[in-house]
Fold each of these.
Amino acid sequence: MQQTIDTREIINVYYGTTSGNSSRLAFQFADEATQHKFIPKVFNLKEFNPDVFIQTRLNIFFVSTYGVGGPTSDAIDFHNWLQSKDRKQNELQGVHFTVFALGNTKHEHFCGMGLKTDARLEELGATRIFQLGKGNSCDETTDNDYSVWVESGLFAALEALSPLVTVPANQVQSSIYKIKEFNNIDVVVGETLSFQAQKYKDSHSLKIIEIKELRKAPSPGNSTLYLSLESQNIPYKAAQNIGIYPENSEEYIQEICTMLNLDPQYIFQIETKGNHPFPTPISVHNYLKKYCDFLGPITKKQLYTLSQLVDDQKAKEELKFVSSHKGREEYDTNYLQTRQCFFHLVKKYNIRNISLQQLIELCPLISPRYFTIASSPLKNPNKIEIIASELLINKERLGLCSQFLRNVKAGQEIKCFLQDSAFLLPQNPQAPILLLGIGAGLAPMRAFIQEKDEFIEQNKLDQSPFKGPMTLFFGCRTMNDYLFKEELEEYEKNGTLNQLKVAFSREGQQIRITNYLDVEFLNQFLESGGVIYVCGSTQMGRDVQIAIENMFKQARKVMPYLAYRKVNELEEQKIFVKELWG
Ligand SMILES: Cc1cc2nc3c(=O)[nH]c(=O)nc-3n(C[C@H](O)[C@H](O)[C@H](O)COP(=O)(O)O)c2cc1C
């Protein structure tokens, strides 16, 4: 007798991400949808195909916001397609959707991209299955916000639309991986890789020319590295973003192999009807090194699986509880905020019985870390320079990328790719330029200064995108953190920088760069058609925003409630350009 199975419809799960939050939730949702007997298909928005979208009834979007309430770079084509005037009224009739928007309340336009997507889908005639959800990464509550959203009835709404049907078992596509030992005699057939794995595969391998510490008295967590990479004739732009794929260290790989009794030399292939999560055949060692993110924030799916595997009854209950909706506050305070990860919990609870297949299903791929290029291709056509601050987690362990960069040596190659940042050249080359940076936020400023300096050196200032006066206000804690001191002072001496001011927040007068932004100065600067570039912490971005608002209120007598809008207008006109983190 033919075997049958109860199932529901296909759901397309789309995500647009930069740092991995949206993709993590998209895959988590896919896992939960499978338990509810749906057939999820996960796509990065770069792979968005309008025909597939319109033909599939159920669609869910996980979209994060970047820039001024805009899309992540992988979602730009989708965003342009959706918002295009070419779209016809009711073009999306029959399509059902729901959106989970990711953002951060420290940024303006909170969840802007999700809100725009949600509103436009409805405008084009698509039916909203469930109200928009919002995840706020400000206090790292995104994952909890997601579970609250799901628990408030998402699956009930989906199930009402798509009742169970009984079909022959062989009609249901399975995306579960099967691990198979690779023998040298096996013929390797071309695999279709997941979007993220393909992006990794297509990225460049750039050789490190030099790596050194920039601070005078570094300590763990208070270190800033300088890296130069051979650009291998890959065209790059000043202040562009570079995504670097970090790798797990040998110590961690050895330890996890010992804990889980995995043979690092074992070479395996993956059998799946879906996309392959990474290229195979591969050794366990290389999988753990390049792809397996076992040090990232612990997910509820990981906690649930660990609860099933741990022997200790108390631990079992605790892990199960925090993986549930009821335990969301404990999950947030005791696991997310304390930066717990899969590796440390496996170690803490002495869990040994996790198979390679489970590991692959539980741990996401290592995501790239983004930096802003600190050099100009005109001055340095053969090298890309980067400034990287070190991240210390819980005052005890370095973040994955920080430990990776600590261990790499000159001559070694690293995987990376380039993409545009918010720091585009000014539209008016005559515009006065004000560069505001703190710490490693000096990177894009240095790239622009180098660019201008090169035009001056070649006696071609008339062709430069920076013909107007250029001012740099740089903030650091103490003289020990004053990065590129001699170089910056030289740029001031030779006239590339018309003004250089350095604010030390923990030394001397203990001031911040915002102390230089008084009402009169900002008013005159903006009246003269100036452009302001800011790079550093979100707090600093907010302080600069407040300084500009005050200028509007006091110098231009703008009503307080309109001052905020005025600053937004400056952002939209690319007169106030920010790239912030943290
Ligand atoms: C450079 C930058 C710009 C951002 N701009 C916004 C924004 O305008 N509005 C917002 O709500 N969140 C903004 N965010 C926050 C992200 O959307 C949020 O952290 C999200 O969880 C990231 O998801 P991802 O890991 O999938 O990229 C920004 C984050 C960065 C790093």
Amino acid sequence: MITVENLSKTFPGADEPVRALHDVSIDVGAGSLFGVVGPSGSGKSTLARCVALQERPDRGVVRFDGLNTGSLDGRRLREARRQLGVLPQRAELHGERTVAGNVAAPLELLGLDGPQRRRKVGTLLDLVGLTRRAGQHPADLTPGQRRRIAVARALATGPSVLLADDPTAGVEPEESGAVLAVLDRARAELGVTVLVTTPDAAVARKLCDDIALLEQGSLVESGNVLSLLSDPASRTAQALLPAIETTRTQAAAYDRTADVVLIGFATVGALLPEATTRFGIELATIGGGLTRVGDTPVARFRLGLRGERADAALAWIAERGGHVTQQGLGPQGIAAA
Ligand SMILES: Nc1ncnc2c1ncn2[C@@H]1O[C@H](COP(=O)(O)OP(=O)(O)OP(=O)(O)O)[C@@H](O)[C@H]1O
């Protein structure tokens, strides 16, 4: 759907040029929820603005369904922009208009008549869960509710892509889940492809199918979130998986230790107890924990194992989809090292 190929962008800086993007390539599939994640200044907004066709890259290409947007002239560029709904980082609502009026504003520009507008606004307010607020003004809403209205407004013209630049910025943590849920609904119910930028790995963990990590304008890694978690050495795994905090004393109580990443209901729930009985070993989780990536449960545990068939049990767990790493020996191994 959206392909970004070798994008580079440099801005003039006070002392020297600022390299905002350097040779960044991403592939955003139709209907996916794609997260661009990185610290402040890593180039996320610049990438979003290039994809929104608001900024021209110095080098590289942004393609929509294969079409090179860099080659489009004025009229065709405007047509391409109409496919895009943009939620800027500081989306301003019209303070003097009602919530419904704010969502209706882009439809008025399109020239939709009253009944059509009302129907469309009703559907969008329902999508963002704020139907009962239709007659209120933005000042009466919380920052999270205002952000949800801005999402409804960005979706009003029926874009096929929604670009949301840091959608939870300035939103209280207890409200950010509702903002993310609205983006998820936009994808599920309207079939919109959603590209989100965020400095918050937890946003990507809760929302995104695919992810690109940026650092100082360069792409560190990208791909399907669950696939990246299968490689515990990946930066995505380090950012999203539960931390392992185990003392040497805890580890020393076992013959060997191993770290394991388990993905999915069946794997998380059943694999470890079954390995224990099948191989007649003692197996305990001595670190790590359980989280969720979207709706999928994902665990990273440090295991302590005791028993002759511990190695065979680990091999069996790995064969059944557990990602086993960092196998270490117990007290004897540590003493010898
Ligand atoms: N119009 C501009 N003129 C000059 N420098 C710019 C401009 N836009 C961005 N930059 C610089 O480019 C770099 C990347 O900025 P960008 O806003 O894309 O990062 P970001 O990851 O979105 O950061 P944040 O999360 O803080 O919004 C930064 O060093 C920034 O100061």
Amino acid sequence: MSASTDSATDNSRSARTYRWECDELLRGEASKKYGLIIVNQPIRRDLLDRAWKAAEVRLCADGGANRLYKVDEQQAYLPDMIKGDLDSIRDDVRTHYSSKGVPVVEDKDEYSTDLMKCIAEVPQDHALVLLGGLSGRVDQSVHTMAMLHKIDREIYVLDGESFAWLLRPGRHEIRIDHHTMGQTCGILPVGVDSARVKTQGLKWDTDWETSLNGNLSTSNHLLPENPEVVIETDRPILWTVEIRPLD
Ligand SMILES: Nc1ncnc2c1ncn2[C@@H]1O[C@H](COP(=O)(O)OP(=O)(O)OP(=O)(O)O)[C@@H](O)[C@H]1O
Ligand SMILES: Cc1ncc(C[n+]2csc(CCO)c2C)c(N)n1
């Protein structure tokens, strides 16, 4: 993502313009530094491979190490660190990674999650990529959503069939890669009462106030001829786009 203040759009609705080129993650490419955090959720092998390749720093949040160990049968991938309260990592997994020199860092703080403990380890100049975190346990999923709001960093979530990130107030120009992104997408006012949202480039473009008890754009579609979607919003919203099977 790159951000600029555009005087032409410098009004109360959209003071900043953001350009999102994070579709590169789905191709395993990186034009900037990414820090990958693998959480304790089922891992899609194709997504792991792409995200691992794009990332410069890779961590496992506690039981996330069990997931990596299981999916990486050749044991080709060594994370830079495993961190958490360590109540979920299996003994054999801990022994394996320790023997390969991976630091396994115990932090027993009961007021921060394993995800927070890992985020703190990723250098500030790295964008964050979470593998998992928005599905599974509802409390954990809402906690991940809270991290997107509270942490003033780029955070991308790859979870199952969804690629999701927060769009803060402003104008967002989102590059679309139709080879890796499926057609379905959503604009979700999660964590805000409502948001005024205008879109360009979707099958069902909106110019409305969206809220969970009012207008909501789920199961919207990208259009194959459009290489970009533009979204203007006055409040933070979750943008989510489907991920195709990646080969
Ligand atoms: N069921 C789940 N759904 C979504 N995210 C999960 C789930 N389980 C774990 N996570 C994510 O993986 C991280 C590591 O989880 P792990 O299971 O190892 O520990 P935990 O004790 O469940 O989590 P924590 O200690 O952070 O509360 C969590 O901090 C969370 O971000
Ligand atoms: C109000 C409140 N609710 C839950 C917890 C528990 N908790 C939150 S994060 C965490 C660490 C998990 O590894 C634990 C145990 C708390 N401390 N305060």
